[in-house]
Amino acid sequence: MSTVIGENVPRVDGQEKVTGRALYTGDLKLAGMVQGKVLRCPYAHARIRRIDARKAETLPGVVAVLTRDNLKVATPYIGAMIKDQPVIALEKARYAGDVVAAVAALDDAVAEEALKAIEVDYEELPAVMSVDDALSPTAPLIHERIERSRPPAYGRGASYIAHEHSNICHHFHYERGDVNEGFRQSDLVFEDEFVYPTAQHYPMEPTISVASYEGDSVTVWSPSQAPFATRQEISRVFGMPLSRIRVIVPHVGGGYGGSKGALTSILAVALSRHVRRPVRVAFSADENFKTICQPQIKVVIKTGVKKDGTFVARQSRVYLNAGAYVYSTPSVAEKAGYRSHGPYHIPYVLTDSYAVYTNTVPAGAFRGFGGHQAAFAYESQADIIAHRLAMDPVELRRRNLLGRGEEYAAGDTPIDCDLKGMLEELAVAIEWDKKEEPPKDPRFKRGKGIACAVKDGGGSGKSASATVRIMSDGSAVLSTGSVEIGQGVRTTMLQITAEELTLPTDRVEVAALDTHTTPFDHSTNASSATVVMGQAVQRAAQDARQQLLSAAASTLSVPVEEVQLREGRIIVKEKGWSLPEIMRLCFANVGGEVVGRGSFNQIRDENVPLGQRSPFWEVGFGGAEVEVDEWTGAIRILKYVSVTDAGKMIHPVHCRGQDEGAAMFGIGLSLFEELLYEDGKLANPNLIDYRLPRFRDLPHSFASRIREDAGGPGPYGAKGVGEGGILGVAPAVCNAVFNATGVRIRQVPLKGERVWRALGQPAVKTPVRQ
Amino acid sequence: MSTVIGENVPRVDGQEKVTGRALYTGDLKLAGMVQGKVLRCPYAHARIRRIDARKAETLPGVVAVLTRDNLKVATPYIGAMIKDQPVIALEKARYAGDVVAAVAALDDAVAEEALKAIEVDYEELPAVMSVDDALSPTAPLIHERIERSRPPAYGRGASYIAHEHSNICHHFHYERGDVNEGFRQSDLVFEDEFVYPTAQHYPMEPTISVASYEGDSVTVWSPSQAPFATRQEISRVFGMPLSRIRVIVPHVGGGYGGSKGALTSILAVALSRHVRRPVRVAFSADENFKTICQPQIKVVIKTGVKKDGTFVARQSRVYLNAGAYVYSTPSVAEKAGYRSHGPYHIPYVLTDSYAVYTNTVPAGAFRGFGGHQAAFAYESQADIIAHRLAMDPVELRRRNLLGRGEEYAAGDTPIDCDLKGMLEELAVAIEWDKKEEPPKDPRFKRGKGIACAVKDGGGSGKSASATVRIMSDGSAVLSTGSVEIGQGVRTTMLQITAEELTLPTDRVEVAALDTHTTPFDHSTNASSATVVMGQAVQRAAQDARQQLLSAAASTLSVPVEEVQLREGRIIVKEKGWSLPEIMRLCFANVGGEVVGRGSFNQIRDENVPLGQRSPFWEVGFGGAEVEVDEWTGAIRILKYVSVTDAGKMIHPVHCRGQDEGAAMFGIGLSLFEELLYEDGKLANPNLIDYRLPRFRDLPHSFASRIREDAGGPGPYGAKGVGEGGILGVAPAVCNAVFNATGVRIRQVPLKGERVWRALGQPAVKTPVRQ
Fold first, then answer.
1. φ and ψ of A122, to 5 deg
2. Rounded distance, CA A657 to CA A285, Å?
């Protein structure tokens, strides 16, 4: 019936973006604005004995230099989960790239010159670059004292273990039954170790913020996925009430979880407050690489099975390299641990996951959020198990997959879709049972692999609110804090508003995001905006609709039950009024409007405790067909199929875009992307040395199959779909490589050299193919 | 008990304004912005045979020229009440100053040059400059065809009479009983004619707008008192949904009812839509004079009284010179007519008031809105009556004043304060019974006069809405559409919010006014924001408070009745939580906020029909002591006392500022201000020839006495106080001149020459005093 939900309506931001009219933070020009730049420590770990900025300060065009010596704040520490990162380094710097000073100058060139003129007296300290080194009893402590977060342990079986005087900043523990008893009951036990790389988010738009401090208020422009969290950090650091801080989000060029703008916003505010002029802090590509990354994750996974393939027990140890500061890594650690059970029925589970400080670039949230790393481990191991049991990998999974309504873990949301049906769909789509003709040239081998994974849609505790205003001409304006990071969320929210008000989509506008006027949203993350903000928007629109119906009923002197809103008209029995007509009647000739508000707060609305209760289950089933060049180790993905469940697709093209985009992210991480260190420094902080996937890396055949199982808690049964596609890529590809070559690779990305070595380093007989 | 209401808290906009940081529309600089200027007709009435803009268009730096020939709009007519004004003149121009073309150019100089290059072929038409001329049967019709508004006749006894093929654009008729029967019952009947001048609002900030049309949306910056009405006009003229139009109101340098920005906004949008660049249209001081004015009003008033001074019957004929286009003049006509009864018990009333087109500058709303012109007539006549009856003017008024709770007119709000008490207070304050020592030099005469007037707070039908958000740190942001035009309204609204949330005022911020995010407000006018928006804001704050209490109750698992909000803390029995603490509990660790909404719609909330039902009664009782120089006619106001009722003063200093400011306006209009025409053109459109009051024109003694009779419908019993002070000035001064000299002057302003002639033109014996 709906003419809006499930339709590919034009994007809210589409025309502006394709015509180049869309303005990003970097386009902003404010009168008197100066440029902020930061000085970075060249050592992985160093004590700062002295900083002398006097020479820099006297350079013509330099407006100010901020160091630990003149940074006057309520607290210098920031951090999404643990307040461990000084805005500007204090007693020491903890990685090569750590910020030790900030300059405001009339232009970039002067600012660069000023940075060079700052004298820093460093005392180099021993550094630890890997988790193994950091866990050594003799390892230097990277943080001598931190305020460790103590979130309430969530769900039955989950707890947190504190490690004092250790580089372990977070330890998540989960158990279900006695895992040793499980292993005793098993016929076979498998133990394997898998490593997933540290990588860069690399959104098109770099990290940037502009701040303008005036009087005792500040306005910040920043492409943040979490403008309300940014506001919160500014409030805390500078001791300002939230009501005096405006965070405005212009158009945003991608996010992917990289906390874009968190540090630049604080630096810009600090500088602007100091110099009382607008300040722009824009990081270069090199600096973006040195600001935040995906943590490297090592998973040691031990699984006990019956001879018939039934899973009995699983023990996982998950190690995350959190880098020098943790951002959301503690949460990623929990999720990687919690998600390492996989979508299977496993009676005995024991998981320990650790986030560990090292002297590397800070790690944090990244699309997939621990889910794809865990899936790489358990789905690679599933094929190891199947191979050993001489079972069909599809059959092994069919036997163990959770059914709809079964609990993933006690107390968590039951599985909300038909996983087994998706497995069958995947098998058909990848033509699992069809044996392909082998390539003519025997150096090329072909094989197929699959992987099945799920990811919860973030922990409970999300909170969102929205307002919907119906204008006197019947058009409407929605105010929502969900950030448009390319996923189409503002169009989706517009569709929900239009649907509830029975309006065509071109009668609804979405107001600019400004924390001073936009109602609160937790953050745009975990593929959850459609579910979380979607419900807030739906309620706001329903509140507006109900007020309209009540006003119409009172104006027309009929009971409210007799008033209906249909196709943008108020209907009472057989009579109808257009919205402008009824608004004119309700508000007489003076105009007027209806303001609806809606909010969603998972903890209060669903009466669930803070912590682990997924709002929904995001599904990432992948099937890959690959060709391996045994001479070079080069891998081509011939075909990739992603199967997921959207619950209900509000905007099918956007859903497909999200699922394909997530799969393409997975392809980059599985084949190419990896941050590398040399001598304590990031060695490839640029797009020459760090390889992103390109168009020609697209699989020859690439399909996203999205089901609508109607089990989501979002409006009309919707769920989120932004991350499912990434989950299955690495294991499906590695399983296909095994299927093609008989060689099991336990570390991605599958760069040519790594594959070539794994294949037994066959002699190169012809020049390497590019 | 309150620490906020009734306190002179710092102004929201104070620091910004006194430090020069406040940005006004004229400070706005947008990339690519061009300057808009208009060509004005030099004739009072002329047919436009042809416009040739080709030469102007080819001048270097000229971006576009808009005339009737290329103005493509949904409808070219605008107007607050009657859509009679073309954005750009069509077949003819109706006053000297009418806009016949608009130019967009790179700078002002080029734009001026382009205006000169536009060739217009005019055919001059006979013009009518006065109401008398316009009403002559042979007068040319100024508007051949207009859509006349047909508002529902309000209140018992009120009606509208249509005049086709006439220059009368609006005729309001009111009767109570048979006035001729009233005159028959009277012992004496008085008939007098009074004239009040046409004048300029002259706010410090000129008329200006900036528009930026992008895609199919437009953003307008304008110092409008009625941004939502401006949005409505743009929607109508350009056929755009309201949701695609943003009107942003920066700081505003005064309003006084002059529809500032109405015409410039439409012109700026038209130009920006045409050239697809931001366009700034700023009128010069000369142009402001030629844009809108206060209508000249002639009142012919006939009053029948008993010998003891009891008022029996009153017939008024009120003539307004509406100028070439009417803006709100029809409404001013109604109000001047309706207000001509005065605050007295009069059994028989007959009123006809007429707004009449002439070929002069368009008239419209002006502080006082017909009230001071009517009061000038009836309060001057009251003294004529008292003199004839040999009664004390105070005693005459005492005998006739309406008591608290008595109806002004059937169906209207009863008098909501103690008028008689105010008369006594005025008499004491002006030392009515004390005979002053006469000046030593007999050329100077001294006298005292009083006047008593009331003014309704605008007709019913006002509508306002607001939101109040409580942030997770317990600070709050208010969104209100009331425009800060210097009166302090945003501070008042902040106080109401703070009071309801029991917060200190520095924990509340008021968000910038932007129609895209700010809830609807009818307009900031008729001194009614405190009452109308005040109730919306109070309800929004109460809604937020109630949600907070509910959330706290559910979080703390106690009945909501047991939860209290006191001094910014949530209290349950003897335990207390600060707002940040309780917000953290309610929203767990994720942050969150409460969004409260409130609206006020007089018609629906108070169940009153559209039209005349005053939300409250504004009081303007004035007492003047003057010195008249008989040789020159110069008048000095030695003492002025204004007595009014605020119901409850939310911010006493602002109330006093409003009342004193209104009285000072009255002084300017009574002594100096008057627009003059010569040869069909405005002769004094500048501050050299048009005399505004200066500091040295302040009365030597100037007091505003504000009562708090607690009878207002606004929060805490508040009423509005922005216009009362103007009501009594002209009659009190003229009564004082009569008291001093025995000469009755029936026309203001009391310029030296006019007074000197009225005094019988005594010979000038010494040089004229400056």
1. -95, 145
2. 26
Helix or strand or coil: residue A508? strand
Q: Is A533 a residue whose pLDDT tops 60? A: yes
Contact map slice: A 497-526 vs B, CB within 8 A: 506-509, 511-512, 514, 516-520, 522
pLDDT in the model for residue B494: 98
Residue A172 within a domain: no
User: Do A461 and B590 lie within an 8 Å CB cutoff?
Assistant: yes
Place of tokens 């003199």: B387
pLDDT in tens, B389-415: 999 999 999 999 999 999 998 888 999
Q: Is B13 on the interface with A (CB under 8 A)?
A: no
| Closest residue in chain B to residue A555, using alpha carbons only | B604
pLDDT in tens, B725-735: 999 999 999 99
Over residues A236-292, the pLDDT tens digits come to 999 999 999 999 999 999 999 988 888 999 999 999 999 999 999 999 999 999 999
Other C-beta atoms closer than 10 Å to the C-beta of A579 total 24
Per-residue model confidence as pLDDT tens digits over B202-232: 999 999 999 999 888 999 999 999 999 999 9
Query: What pLDDT shows up at residue B148?
Result: 61
Mean local confidence (pLDDT), B608-631: 88
Average pLDDT over residues B285-314: 98
Which residues of A, range 91-150, sit inside 8 Å of B by Cβ?
Answer: none
Note whether B438 and B524 are same-domain residues: no
Q: Is A175 a known active-site residue?
A: no
Verify that B260 and B402 share a domain, yes or no. Answer: no
Q: What is the pLDDT of residue A148?
A: 61
Of the residues B282, B314, B335, the one at which a domain ends = B282
Q: Looking at the domain assignment, is residue A290 inside a domain?
A: no
Q: What is the dihedral of CA B239, B242, B246, B252, to 10 degrees?
A: 100
Task: Provide the shortest C-alpha distance from residue A9 to chain B (in Å).
Answer: 17
Q: A477 and B551: CB-CB below 8 Å? A: no
Query: Same domain for B474 and B528?
Result: yes
What was the pLDDT predicted at B261?
Answer: 83
Would you call B235 and A590 a contact, using CB atoms and an 8 Å cutoff?
no
pLDDT value of residue A722: 95
Task: Provide the pLDDT confidence category of residue A145 given band limits of 50, 70 and 90.
Answer: confident
Mean pLDDT computed over A435-453: 93
* A41 lies in the same domain as A68: yes
Report how many domains make up chain B: 3
Domain co-membership, B336 together with B437: yes
Q: Which residue has the tokens 């005469």?
A: B445
Which residues constitute the domain of residue B26? 18-125+207-282
Q: Which of A569, A601, A633 lies at the terminal end of a domain, its last residue? A: A601
A751 is a domain residue: yes
- DSSP tag of B460: B
Q: Which of A507, A593, A601, A605 to mutate to test the interface with B (most CBs of B within 10 A)?
A: A593
User: Between chain A and chain B, how many beta carbons pairs sit less than 8 Å apart?
Assistant: 173
Assess if residue B741 is contained within a domain: yes
Q: Which tens digit of pLDDT belongs to each residue from A667-696? A: 999 999 999 999 999 999 999 999 999 999
Helices A579-586 + A529-556 axis angle, to 10: 60
Instruction: Report in angstroms the alpha-carbon separations of A75 from A233, A235, A357.
Output: 10, 10, 22
CATH number of the domain that A333 lies in? 3.30.365.10
Compute the mean pLDDT over every residue in chain A, rounded to the nearest whole number: 94
Residues B677 and B691 in one domain: yes
User: Domain of A247: which CATH number?
Assistant: 3.90.1170.50
Q: Do A79 and A99 sit in the same domain of this protein?
A: yes
Assess whether B588 and B686 both reside in one domain: no
Listed in sequence order, the DSSP H helices in B350-418 are 371-389, 393-400
